[in-house]
Amino acid sequence: MKPKIAAQSGTFESSDVIFLIEPLPDNIGRKLEISSTVMQQFGDSFNRIVTKMLDQYEMTDIHLIAKDKGALEPTIKARLETALKRSLDLQEGTLK
């Protein structure tokens, strides 16, 4: 799948994460920009969660920006799922 529209989910508050998604031109692949206040301790885990979810949705040609402030795994998954569904125009709250 490919994102249809730009979308976001989450906040930049402590213990939360914000995801911003933009569609890319065809055949570009995935461009991921991930930053976290706990990258040194949990960066590998965060990257695995994001990659696994993108694989589950079979996302291609996506620019994903994640700014993490120490979110727990359930929060990361929920925020990313919401952003993905919004970018596919499957959920309300999209950036238009």
Describe the structure concisely for a colleague:
Helix content is 34%, strand content 26%.
Helix-strand layout with pairing:
Blueprint: E1 7-10, E2 17-23, E3 30-36, H1 39-56, E4 62-68, H2 73-87
Helix pairs in contact: 1-2
Low-confidence parts, pLDDT < 50 over ≥5 residues?
none
The dominant shape is globular
Examine the coordinates and then state which fold CATH places here, giving the name of the CATH topology.
Ribosomal Protein S5, domain 2
Write down the secondary-structure element order. EEEHEH
CATH architecture type: 2-Layer Sandwich
* Spatial order of the strands forming the largest sheet: 1-2-4-3
Number of helices: 2
| CATH class bucket | Alpha Beta
**Helical coverage, percent range:** 25-40%
Most strands sheet: 4 strands, mixed
Question: Span from first to last CA?
Answer: 19 Å
Beta fraction: 25-35%
Mean pLDDT: 93
Number of domains: 1
How many β-strands, per DSSP? 4
Give the helix/strand class.
Answer: alpha+beta
